[in-house]
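New to this. Explain the following:
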Amino acid sequence: MKKNQNKDEEIRLNRFLAMSGVASRRQADEYIASGLVRVNENVVTELGTKVKRADKVYFRNKLVQPERHQYILLNKPKDTVTTSKDPQGRRTVIDMVQNACDERIYPVGRLDRNTTGLLLLTNDGNLAAKLSHPSSSVSKLYHVKTDRPVSKNDLISLTRGVKLEDGVAKADEANYVDEARDEIGIRLHSGKNRVIRRMFEKLNYRIVKLDRVEFAGLTKKNLTRGHYRFLNSREVNFLKLMRK
């Protein structure tokens, strides 16, 4: 039997905001300190403030409604941008999952418009912040097709480290996928922007196709391009228990 929640139970305000999908706890603290959060009729700026479930919490003068957390895995197709809205009217990942749930969900991290593959969307601010943090241990596996065969020396360079303008990027492993040597499987933990494309460009290769086939232990098994599915409880728990 599910335990009833006591309306007088107190929880930290930043946790309440995170549970409601407003932001991660860290971001929620910044909003609180900036005077953007009101509890009942009072603006609250003190970090560590606790609220009761019966309290009315407002963010930017809008009532915050506690939401059920949703976790959706999308196999993103090409020509789709990883934003909620696009001023140019292009298809977004939110367009592809708009009928999935009533809650407002957001992508965790980004994939370039023409990069395909796995993308997680959620309204769990804490988990999103954890998985997106630069120090996160999230492993990502990509399938890369290049415009010409990749030399053995360059394949080794991917794992030894490629010097980019914002520092050295290093793959955990890189292997040939086919005998033609123009398809590479590359695994890494880096959260740098467009890191795969920039690594190959630095080595003078043009990427013809880039597909993320694994993200944080989640795979594309039985998930065709352009489709999505909800994570099961085991997968959600696994993500939450991942070390940062």
